[in-house]
Amino acid sequence: MSGKFGLGNYSSRKHISISVPSSTEVMSPHIKSVEELRVLGINLNSFNTPTQFFICVAGVFLFYLIYGYLQELIFSVEGFKPFGWYLTLVQFGFYSLFGLVELQLTQDKRRRIPWKTYMIIAFLTVGTMGLSNTSLGYLNYPTQVIFKCCKLIPVMIGGVFIQGKRYNVADVSAALCMSLGLIWFTLADSKIAPNFDVTGVVLISLALCADAAIGNVQEKAMKIHNGTNSEMVLYSYSIGFVYILLGLLSVRGLGPAVSFCSQHPVTTYGYAFFFSLTGYFGISFVLALIKLYGALVAVTVTTGRKAMTIVLSFLFFSKPFTFQYLWGGLLVVFGIFLNVYSKNKDKMKLPSLAELRKRVLSGRKVRLLSQEV
Questions:
Q1: TM segments (predicted)?
Q2: Would residue 238 count as lying in a domain?
């Protein structure tokens, strides 16, 4: 009986082997929550939360400030403005190459996020970067940046519809301040900028809508599938490269762009390489911010970087200036402050009106007593 059912022969039994991976091995993304988060070889998990945030913010500011300078420098080359989509094609090509190299250096080379999701992200990425680059042919660079500073508005809208988020009064007030500041800045630019064109406003507005969706889709995909930064960059930009290449071939825009850039290789391809390199490094830190703190925090940090980019643009590149730029920009900055405050109410307790009145009255009493003495 025992032989019939295989109970007496130990070697005939079938066994199920369950192995627990070591700390250096990679577990399934669906059951794993302790994977190392590396950015440019830096293991962020080895630092505490404030240090992680500081490293990400420093990386975003450093690389994207250089990125913004090089972007304006490329478009300052005479005759290059019509070739914004070709610059985006070159940029996507470099990003794909950098992503492939970084992915080969990691232990886990699996694709975790579905192809369908990557095709959507690639389409949105092409929209935001291609339209943003092309808008510089119609807008002053600071105006383009101030529009991108207000990405919080469509991000909030996208958060409501894509992730079902709800926002408080401070967030809504921040969006309104940004909108008013944006209108003010744009009206000032339309009066004094020699190359202002409504087409640029339409292009950058469409870019913002795509950008808003990207942050929310990336955040959702990375949380569900636990995808890595290098994987996200490689697949989304390589698919986007194919999209742009097919688009340029269909409208016959590839030949003139290649011809022009071949005549100015250093100021086009040379600048584009470092432009893409710094942009790739910056994207790595932005994706880390999204994964650690969410899309809204990442947008707030990148918005602060863009505000600094505007200041540097006026310092390094000659262009007309009016104080309406300043007032509109300050209104946008105030909107950013409201947004940051709404996320850190416990740490940033502002005094109420009654407390402010009490402080003013006590200050007056102190001054009167000092005068009497």
A1: 53-71, 83-105, 117-139, 145-162, 169-187, 193-214, 234-251, 271-290, 297-317, 323-341
A2: yes
